[in-house]
Amino acid sequence: MIEFIKGTIDLVTPEYVVIDRGGIGYQVHTPNPFSYQRSRSSEVTIYTYQHVREDILALYGFHTREEKALFMKLLNVTGIGPKGALAILASGNPSQVVGAIENEDEKFLVKFPGVGKKTARQIILDLKGKLGDIAGGLAPDLFTHEEHAATETASKSLSEALEALKVLGYAEREISKVVPALMEEELSTDQYVKKALQKLLK
What keywords sit in the KW lines (predicted)? Predict the structure, then answer.
């Protein structure tokens, strides 16, 4: 099992990042790949989970060990796969997810793609009272660190952000509702993704 990879970000896509470690590029699926955009060419540490099935071998990566631990707990819930767990963590606010589980807030949980009432109830049933060890180490918001000036044009950033939302499983009709609000500002891709997710989860 690969616990973490320390290296430089070589590529950022809507689905994954490629981290260069010793001349080997590791493809790592992350909740919000664009949160690594500002880290290009500087060394980062990504905490990884290796997912193995008969037809797939994939690495999933996270900013913190606590975020990784929450992802692994979500995978143990019936009806939640890696893609669904990534979508839940993509809001950048795992402490809010933990709070919703502890408070049995089904209305909040069903806002995530692929999570219906039955799955939300299952998440609460399986995880309530079992996340105390994770909650203490979670930052209120993983992506509130200082924002750097975006290198892309706003339109390119917005296009990338919309693509990232599709990868997470949000439908075109859901995405189209938040586009007007996103177009009001010139943001980096990461900021657009974060703002869109905040609006989609309201």
Answer: ATP-binding, Cytoplasm, DNA damage, DNA recombination, DNA repair, DNA-binding, Helicase, Hydrolase, Nucleotide-binding
Q: Which residue has the tokens 């909650």?
A: 135
DSSP H helices, the chain, are 65-75, 82-89, 94-102, 106-109, 117-127, 132-135, 154-168, 172-182, 189-200
Q: For the chain (length 202 residues), average pLDDT per consecutive 10? A: 92 94 95 86 91 90 92 93 92 81 92 91 92 63 37 67 89 85 84 90 83
Please answer whether residues 60 and 71 qualify as being in contact, where contact means their C-beta atoms are separated by less than 8 angstroms: yes
Query: Considering the entire predicted model, what is its pTM?
Result: 0.71
In angstroms, the CA 70 to CA 75 distance is 9
The closest of 28, 139, 161, 3 to 82, measured between CA atoms, is 28
| Two tokens, residue 101 | 């589980």
